[in-house]
Amino acid sequence: MQKPLLQIALDTYDLPSALGPLQKAAAQIDVIEVGTILCLSEGMHAVRAIKSLFPDKIVLADVRIAEAGSIISKMCFDANADWVSVVSGAAPSSFEVVLAEAQARGGDMQIELSDGWTWDMAQKWADMGVQQVIFKRSRDLEAQGTLTWGEKDFDTIRRLHEMGFKVTVTGGVKPKDIPLFAGVPVYIFIAGRAIRGADDPLAAATEFQTIMADTWA
Amino acid sequence: MQKPLLQIALDTYDLPSALGPLQKAAAQIDVIEVGTILCLSEGMHAVRAIKSLFPDKIVLADVRIAEAGSIISKMCFDANADWVSVVSGAAPSSFEVVLAEAQARGGDMQIELSDGWTWDMAQKWADMGVQQVIFKRSRDLEAQGTLTWGEKDFDTIRRLHEMGFKVTVTGGVKPKDIPLFAGVPVYIFIAGRAIRGADDPLAAATEFQTIMADTWA
User: Fold this and answer.
1) Contact assignment for A68 to B42 by CB distance below 8 Å
2) Do A140 and B115 touch (CB under 8 A)?
3) DSSP state of A12
4) What are the chain B neighbours of A87 within 8 Å (beta carbons)?
5) Fewer CB within 10 Å: C terminus or N terminus of chain A?
6) 8 Å CB contact of A141 and B43
7) Is A186 helix (H, G, I), strand (E, B) or coil?
8) pLDDT one-digit tens code per residue, B20-39
9) Residue A147 — pLDDT band, cuts 50, 70, 90?
């Protein structure tokens, strides 16, 4: 089983606040997520600047498309994003138009599994050729501390993987959580504040990579 | 029954493209919507610039919050938005945190009724003190031409009004559609391309206002 990739989530209120920690941690980062908050605060300028600074990294514009998928995904790829995100509750036609746009641009689409997604929906996405889903704990629930990672989560990830999806895992993941996922087919772990907010972002990212390498050895 | 307000939806790829038509039509506009697409392309700079140019108009940051409601709504109000939007499929806790933030800032929250909303959900929002909902035809469905305004829509709007909501109506509304809504308690009509894309945006906005005045006379 392949070692997961490490994605840094940049959810700052402005671009400069994101660039500092990103620059420090970049050597250990595989995927750079321009988070919803940063997309909304700085617009596509943030995506364009970050891809320009880090052309060899995968850059995700985490715009969480709910509708107007064609226009929004075009805008993201025009700003040189590699991947864009769509919420699972989006208008059904959105998945096809965004996936088609992504494929035409050599990029990819991730579907974020929000409350209310079903296995029937997931099967339709798989049939449609969708490659990636994001399995998450919501920030609000996470803030309430009501959820922890457990077998139920791992079973869900395994089943999604068996359906053919590459699964990104997000929601306050910390280095100490990583070994819990041993044997679970995770494609990407997302870390936000755990890296961006660290005194030493490079050390924090390195710790993630080291623990992932040990866990998936 | 009160004459509805007129809201211009600005869904351009950049701020200058929005400002030209807006400046021309402004005298006839009640609410300025900084659309999702413009928020994503230019960020909160667009909201800040538009409120600065039109301080006496209501400015809606149509960010369609799905989660992280506290952070995103703060960001919008910091950029001087009067109203923010939340999607009906948002994490349940989002409505309360955004509404609280809006009330603390003298603003308001609109819930956009996306596919999958239920009357049970609407009742919970009413009980929570939510004042405004957006009843829409989706851009994708609209593009397919599969929906027209009819009694089913009007009944929904009436029932939402009876529950205490002020109802915004959107989805390719044209002046010729307005008389169909006679006797229907619409709080706001949204027009996007019908005004922004018109050769004479002021004349287009004036036509909306005139037909609304006639219909609600």
Assistant:
1) no
2) no
3) -
4) 66, 89
5) C
6) no
7) coil
8) 999 999 999 999 999 999 99
9) low
Contact A45, A78 (CB under 8 A): no
Output the pLDDT for position A136.
87
Q: How far is A24 from chain B (nearest CA, A)?
A: 25
Summarize pLDDT for A65-78 with one digit per residue, the tens. 988 899 999 999 99
Q: Specify the pLDDT at position B71.
A: 94
Domain containing residue B132: 5-215
Task: Judge contact between B215 and B179, C-beta under 8 A.
Answer: yes
Q: Which of B66, B69, B71 lies nearest to residue A64, judging by beta carbons?
A: B66
Quick check: A60 and A39 in contact, CB under 8 A? no
Here the ipTM equals 0.86
> Which CATH number characterizes residue B167's domain?
3.20.20.70
Q: What is the pLDDT of residues B126-158, one digit of tens each?
A: 999 999 999 987 555 555 665 678 888 999 999
pLDDT of residue B66: 86
Minimum distance, in Å, between the CA of residue B130 and any CA atom of chain A? 20
pLDDT of residue A138: 53
pLDDT reported for residue B169: 97
pLDDT of the residue at B205: 98
Residue B45 reports pLDDT greater than 60:
yes
- Evaluate the CA torsion angle A111, A138, B44, B194 in order and state its sign: positive
User: Rounded distance, CA A23 to CA B212, Å?
Assistant: 55
Mean pLDDT of chain A: 93
How long a stretch of residues is chain B?
217
Give CA B15 to chain center in angstroms: 19
Does residue A91 contact residue A74 with C-beta atoms inside 8 Å? no
Per-residue pLDDT at B140: 53
Structure-token match 């999958």, residue found: B116
* B91 contacts A115? CB cut-off 8 A: yes
Tell me the angle at which helices A44-53 and A69-78 cross, rounded to the nearest 10 degrees.
Answer: 40
Position B203, amino acid: A
In angstroms, rounded to a whole number, what is the distance separating the alpha carbons of residues B150 and B88?
22
Residue type, A160: L
The count of domains in chain B is 1
Contact A91 B138 (CB under 8 A): yes
| Average of per-residue pLDDT across A104-129 | 95
SS3 at position B11: coil
| Residue A191 · residue A8 · CB < 8 Å | yes
| CB of B36 closer than 8 Å to CB of B61 | no
**Counting every residue, how long is chain A?**
217
